[in-house]
Task: structure prediction
Amino acid sequence: MTTLQVNGRVHEVSCEPHETLAEVLRDRLGLLGVKVSCGEGECGSCTVLLDGEPATSCLMLAVQAEGREITTIEGIGTEDDLHPIQQAFIDKHGFQCGFCTPGVILSAKALIEKNPQPTAGDVAEALNGHICRCGAYPQIIDSVLSAAERMGDRCECES
Result:
């Protein structure tokens, strides 16, 4: 048995030593927001946060994530209460087909937590390795910048 802490909950899962984190998250825990496209760590669609840092879950064995905090797109907002980054992607049209969007949003979240006022260049660098087959890069960058602004405003209001 492998113990995984995913989206704030502890899960005991039976998995084979060769199974990737992406496979276990999708197939055992039903977290379908973790997309698998290339299976080689090149496209970013399988990105999750591992202890707050972006990680390609298709390249990591599930057993390697034991004892670490895993966050998937399902762990940052709900249908009724979207995370500000999710809402910004809707408002700024930062997605088209949506396949890359969960991984992009998680990488953006990690960026904004480290750098609350990123530039467009910072966003482009942080999202390097995410492939958007629809070519929505300008809208993605606008979405992340808008989210950072909103999150900064929200933090100031809560202080």
User: Anything to note?
Assistant: The domain at 2-75 is CATH 3.10.20.30 (Ubiquitin-like (UB roll)). Residues 39 and 58 are 6 Å apart (CA to CA). Residues 137-158 form the longest helix (22 residues).
